[in-house]
Design a protein that fits this description.
mainly alpha, 3 helices
């Protein structure tokens, strides 16, 4: 499944142009350190059973 259909912003410029009206403008840019660093991001979002798995389960 394409990630933009799950609500994630596309990084491919062609897809970005095709979907630009579907996402609000970004107001604040932040760094990984603002979220606790990459180790914390990995644990919270990408480890097994973390947020990304929960999002995918809801969209299946």
């Amino acid at each position: 499944m394409l990630s933009h259909k799950l609500g994630f912003r596309p990084v491919d410029l062609t897809v970005t142009k095709e979907t630009e009206g579907k996402f609000p403008k970004i107001k604040t840019i932040f760094k990984a350190q603002d979220l606790g660093g990459w180790d914390e991001i990995q644990k919270k979002f990408f480890d097994e059973g973390a947020i990304l798995d929960k999002i995918r389960a809801k969209k299946s």
